[in-house]
């Protein structure tokens, strides 16, 4: 029995289909596990990781469909341009994983199986090494200070006096009115001096701001704001 499938792009066998789809599934699943193992922020999404596996297999399928036929490739581009993605990617690193599964899916669909396997293993290893040894980390912990003060009065000097005493450096990020203009909310990024605790900074700021709410958020660079 002849299992070869003939179309305008050439001939590929059922074996080619099975290998391409299976390898893309295995590699995409491995990337999903690497992503889960190296994820640090609080917004881990199981749906996103499952999407990585699906995207890898879909891209492999598209490459099998397209083959070397340019007309079919352009028609698929036109069809896929109708799709609109509304979800914002929260972390730049997530985009890299999407491109990774797409690249490996393309290699599997083009039947470059050795390239896909070696490249997938090498890139996953690099990701694990970067995570293990914390490459490119900035070893300076900063905090976000959010202070609410009554509107109509200038508390900037009082706040900055406290920040000078308790922090090594600070920078004003934003100022906005809240509660219908009754309060003004200011945000600073700061680096608290050694020997001082966030609670001390909160207490000192509360004394200067008529007891209004003061918040110090530590580790904000590892948190999705």
Give a quick summary of the entry:
The protein is of the alpha+beta class and 225 residues long. The protein has helices at 14-38, 46-66, 70-80, 92-109, 113-132, 156-166, 198-208, and strands at 5-7, 10-12, 143-150, 167-178, 183-192, 214-218. Helix 2 (46-66) packs parallel to helix 4 and helix 4 packs antiparallel against helix 5 (113-132).
Structure description:
Helix 1 (14-38) packs parallel to helix 5, helix 2 runs parallel beside helix 4 (92-109) and helix 6 (156-166) runs antiparallel to helix 7 (198-208). By secondary structure, this protein is of the alpha+beta class. Strands 4-5-3-6 form a four-stranded antiparallel beta sheet. Strands 1-2 form a two-stranded antiparallel sheet. The protein has two domains: 5-132, no CATH class; 143-222, 2-Layer Sandwich (Alpha-Beta Plaits), CATH 3.30.70.260. The chain contains seven helices and six strands; from the N terminus they run ββαααααβαββαβ. Residues 5-9 have low confidence and may be disordered. It has helices at 14-38, 46-66, 70-80, 92-109, 113-132, 156-166, 198-208, and strands at 5-7, 10-12, 143-150, 167-178, 183-192, 214-218. The N and C termini lie far apart (60 Å). Helices cover 52% and strands 18% of the residues. The chain is elongated, with a radius of gyration of 26 Å.
């Amino acid at each position: 029995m002849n299992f070869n499938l003939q179309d305008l792009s050439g001939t590929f066998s059922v074996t080619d289909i099975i290998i391409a789809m299976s390898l893309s599934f295995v590699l995409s699943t491995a990337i999903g596990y690497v992503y889960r193992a190296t994820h640090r922020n609080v917004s881990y999404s199981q749906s996103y990781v499952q999407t990585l596996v699906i995207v890898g297999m879909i891209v492999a399928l598209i490459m099998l469909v397209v083959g070397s036929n340019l007309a079919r490739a352009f028609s698929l581009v036109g069809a896929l341009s109708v799709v609109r993605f509304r979800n914002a990617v929260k972390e730049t690193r997530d985009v890299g994983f999407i491109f990774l599964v797409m690249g490996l899916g393309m290699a599997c669909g083009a039947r470059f199986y050795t390239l896909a396997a070696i490249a997938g293993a090498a890139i996953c290893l690099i990701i694990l090494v970067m995570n293990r040894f914390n490459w490119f980390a900035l070893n300076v912990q900063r905090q976000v200070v959010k202070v609410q003060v009554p509107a109509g009065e200038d508390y900037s000097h009082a706040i900055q006096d406290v920040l000078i005493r308790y922090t090594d450096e600070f920078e004003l990020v934003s100022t906005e009115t809240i509660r219908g203009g009754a309060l003004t909310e200011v945000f600073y990024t700061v680096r608290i001096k050694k020997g001082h605790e966030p609670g001390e900074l909160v207490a000192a700021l509360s004394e200067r701001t008529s007891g209004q709410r003061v918040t110090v958020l530590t580790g904000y660079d590892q948190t999705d704001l």
